[in-house]
Write a structure and sequence with these properties.
This protein has three domains: about 180 residues, Beta-Lactamase; about 180 residues, GAF domain (Beta-Lactamase), CATH 3.30.450; about 200 residues, Histidine kinase-like ATPase, C-terminal domain (Heat Shock Protein 90). The radius of gyration is 34 Å and the shape is globular. The longest helix has about 55 residues. The protein is α+β, with helices and mostly antiparallel strands. Helix content is about 50%, strand content about 15%. Helix 7 packs parallel to helix 11. It has 17 helices and 18 strands. It has a six-stranded antiparallel beta sheet with strand order 8-7-6-11-10-9, sandwiched between helices.
Length: about 650
């Protein structure tokens, strides 16, 4: 092998080695920084922009653009561009088929799945179609990096330099490592956007989510080149990358959090030949780290003993790593003041604790221990940190899947409860029908009221169903909560009517009890004052049922909107009559008031739809809205004591 004349001198030889190590360290830092940026971002547009901007900033390039492919054609569709390009993308057309426009580096990279450099744009015949436009921009070399996710080809990341022969094999390998991270981030953002916009049918969402995660990331290549190390060091580092890819494949294929973490600790212990590995996750309170899984029989014992570490414990490497959100390593635990010994692990001599962080939230800690002093190198730490990011994403996905299953179970249980309620009502009706003739009048009334209540429940369910949009999981929780509030409002008026033996009831008492029932949903740190003056006005049982639902919706609206940004609010209710002895019921709060659409009585939500429908059809009245000040709704309806 030919050597530089300067290599004969030890001083210059050490300088060259130092430069190589510095370059490798810089590249590791760049990739780790890119991984952190991608981990925090789930928006597709921002992720695409970050990919192009980061590759320019971290690799000193002139321009980068991201081209995606789809199943409908063979065109490469540019979606994002950063750097100096002055209309370059508007003047070119690129495909990935066998046509002339698909013979360039971009088409070749997408077809073959391999990075394709173009170090002489001015002379390389494969670049003939695009040479004039590229040279006009000052570009002299380029490279196309395939973006693939598992078996799916997403497109290519294309980068340009004003220097010829810029893309050496080493730079190309570093750029492909960045492109692999970018592909995972791009697919992660795409999956997140799909989940956000396809939640209408939970069963379809779970099926689609499972299919996506089954096809998800099968390899995460952490190619951090270290050029001037010995052949043994390079082989060891290559082995670590292979292990990381294997772990990533396991993470992408498993949704159950117990199976996921069990596979991770088993792989890490066996592949890295470690003494012990376990994973702590923060409990729901966020104050305690709980052993979720550990390797071998010791791990089982730790879990059986419910081994925990308070987050504020000072003498604990695991707790400090979680608090500081930093990877902590100790070469000799017996000399470290923060080491907390465990009698089940007497042979521990070195330890590293890596926090599992998603965004700015700590999920837990990956703890690795070995029975050798100074076991963990900087290369190990870089690998563990990258893996920890992937584990954090996988844990988040597993939590999301578990939450989906809980919501699905809650919906099934709710459906069962409503079905049982219908069956129970049918049983009660049949029992009432068989009662003695002396209870015939009561049977008729109970039958009438129960049917009305069931019709109200069924009507609300159908209305809710028509108004459900494609939203996140919180929508289903809100739907269930609103249904419960409305049913409780019906229960309140039913109880009041029973007290008055289905005779006309005082309107002010009806308002007091329904508002009080609705305000039970207030958070403990919120308070609403209520002012309802005495009134001699009475309403019939039929009117009471409708008014109870209206008042419940108005009180619920105050809870939702009048307490935004503050802890207290005020509700004022006024009851009067006009010259025709018809009833005027006015409900006012001191919140921000109704929107312009609401003031025009547009049916923009289920609550306003219910109010207008009940007032006009059941009460034969009219409703008006204004902001004088706060949200004020006036209901004018004829007085009637007809049962």
């Amino acid at each position: 092998m030919n050597q530089s004349p300067l290599s004969q001198f030890p001083f210059f030889n050490k300088m060259a080695q130092h430069k190589t190590k510095l370059n490798n360290s810089t590249m590791q830092t760049a990739l780790y920084h890119a991984s952190s940026v991608f981990l925090e971002q789930v928006d597709v547009k921002t992720t695409r922009q970050n990919i192009c901007q980061l590759v320019i900033d971290k690799f000193g390039l002139e321009m980068a653009w991201l081209g995606l492919v789809n199943e409908n054609d063979f065109n490469v569709h540019p979606v994002t561009c950063c750097g100096f390009q002055e209309g370059y993308l508007d003047s070119i057309r690129i495909t990935w088929d066998d046509s002339p426009t698909g013979q360039g580096p971009t088409g070749a990279a997408i077809r073959t799945g391999k990075a394709v450099p173009m170090n002489r744009i001015d002379t390389d015949p494969a670049y003939a179609l695009w040479r004039p436009a590229a040279l006009a921009q000052g570009y002299r070399s380029s490279a196309a990096l395939p973006l693939s996710y598992g078996k799916k080809m997403l497109g290519a990341l294309n980068v340009y330099s004003k220097s010829p022969s810029h893309f050496t094999p080493e730079r190309l390998q570093e750029l492909q490592s960045f492109a692999n991270l970018a592909a995972v981030a791009l697919q992660k953002a795409t999956l997140y956007e799909q989940v956000q916009h396809h939640a209408e049918e939970l069963e379809q969402r779970v099926s689609r989510r499972t299919a996506e995660l089954t096809e998800a990331n099968q390899i995460l290549e952490l190619e951090i080149a270290e050029r001037e190390r010995t052949e043994a060091d390079r082989a060891r580092f290559t082995n670590k990358l292979r292990i990381a890819a294997e772990v990533s494949t396991q993470l992408a294929a498993i949704l159950d959090i117990e199976d996921l973490l069990s596979n991770v600790v088993a792989l890490l212990q066996s592949r890295f030949k470690l003494y012990h590995v376990h994973v702590y996750l923060l409990d729901e309170s966020g104050d305690t780290l709980v052993v979720r899984v550990g390797s071998g029989d010791i791990g089982k014992k730790l879990r059986e003993q419910r081994h925990v570490i308070p987050l504020n414990r000072e003498r604990s490497l695991v707790a400090r790593a979680a608090r500081l959100q930093q990877t902590l390593v100790v070469g000799d635990v017996h000399t470290d003041p923060y080491f907390m010994s465990n009698p089940l692990l007497p042979d521990t001599h070195s330890e590293v604790a890596v926090p599992l962080i998603a965004g700015d939230r700590t999920l837990g800690v990956l703890d690795l221990q070995d029975n050798r002093l100074n076991r963990f190198t900087q290369s190990d730490l870089d690998t563990f940190s990258a893996l920890a990011g992937q584990i954090a994403i996988a844990v988040q996905n597993a939590h999301l899947f578990e939450e989906q299953k809980r919501v699905e179970k809650a919906l099934r249980e709710g459906e069962t409860r409503y079905r049982n309620l219908a069956l129970e009502n049918a049983r009660l009706l049949e029992q009432a029908r068989q009662d003695a003739e002396t209870k015939a009048v009561l049977l008729k009334e109970v039958n009438h009221r129960v049917k009305n209540n069931l019709a109200a429940i069924v009507g609300m369910l159908y209305i809710e169903r028509r108004h459900i949009g494609i939203e996140a999981q919180a929508t289903y929780q809100r739907i269930m909560k609103d249904l419960i509030n409305r049913i409780e409002g019906l229960a309140t008026v039913h109880h009041l009517l029973s007290e008055f033996e289905w005779a006309p009831v005082p309107l002010n008492q009806l308002a007091e009890q329904v508002v009080a029932s609705a305000l039970q949903a207030l958070p403990p740190d919120k308070y609403i004052r209520v002012d309802i003056p005495q009134s001699s006005r009475h309403v019939s049982p039929k009117q009471a049922n409708g008014l109870a639902m209206v008042i419940n919706e108005l009180a619920t609206n105050t809870i939702k909107h009048a307490l935004t940004g503050r802890k207290t609010a005020q509700i004022n209710i006024r009851i009067a009559e006009d010259e025709n002895k018809d009833i005027l019921f006015e409900f006012q709060d001191d919140g921000p008031g109704f929107s312009e659409r609401a003031l025009c009585l547009e049916y923009q939500n289920i609550g306003m739809y219910l109010i207008q429908n009940i007032v006009r059809k059941d009460l034969r009245g009219e409703v008006s809205l204004n902001n004088t000040p706060g949200a004020t709704i006036s209901i004018h309806f004829p007085a009637s004591l007809t049962l």
